Amino acid sequence: MEQKTMSIELREKNGKGVARKLRAQDVVPGVVYGKGIEPVSVKVAAKDLAATIAGEGGLNSLITLSGGGSLNGNIVIVADMQRNPLKGDILHVDFHRISLDEKVKVHVPLVMVGTAAGVKEGGMLDVVTYSLDVECLPTAIPEAINVDVTNLAIGHSIHVSELVLPAGIKVLNDPETPIVSIHGKAKEEAPAAE
Q1: 145 lies in a domain?
Q2: How many domains does the chain divide into?
Q3: Residue 94 buriedness (CB in 10 A; 0-12 / 13-18 / 19+)
Q4: CB-based burial of residue 144 (10 Å sphere; 0-12 exposed, 13-18 middle, 19+ buried)?
Q5: What is the pLDDT of residues 116-133, one digit of tens each?
Q6: Do 93 and 123 belong together in one domain?
């Protein structure tokens, strides 16, 4: 996975009022935490954060921090992000400092690939699970996990245990969790002419 670089600054003051003032200047308040360090309050330009999590990797992008005193050069991933429910603006971000040698737990989106045979027969595709919790090394985090639905017939489902996963990926979800199914009635054959 591609590593991205993002500039941050340390934040001296905390609180609602300070956070509001930062957001008014298009700056997102955040925190960096992880194994072996105390949580550190930071701030990042909203446009820089949006650009960093856009495109390949998304929220699971490996981010090398630039600036921020002792945080300079640390590698982080986005652990949590709060958005304004109406505008979609990022209100706050939590970064988790990671080591490239230790496994991490992340959410990876599922992408349905192909047109299901059951849909061609008049059924309806019902996606039940949109992402999986996985554990892997940071450099092995997949952008998404593809689910091939091409051979899925009416009345059938695909479960977590049936997925073909990239090497080094361990799924933390229950293996019996359904991902996608096809609902509907199969087309009836035309009655034979007498």
Answers
A1: yes
A2: 2
A3: middle
A4: middle
A5: 999 999 999 999 999 999
A6: no
- Tens digits of per-residue pLDDT, 37-54? 899 999 999 999 999 888
- Give the residue from 43, 67, 97 where a domain finishes: 97
Q: For position 188, what pLDDT does the model report?
A: 56
Q: Is the pLDDT of residue 134 over 60?
A: yes
CATH number of the domain residue 78 falls in: 2.40.240.10
Report the predicted TM-score, pTM, of the whole model to 2 decimal places: 0.80
**Strand 145-148 and strand 104-113: pairing?**
parallel
User: d(Cα 65, Cα 34) in Å, to the nearest integer?
Assistant: 14
Instruction: Give CA–CA dist 139/61, Å, rounded.
Output: 10
Per cent of the chain over pLDDT 70 is: 95
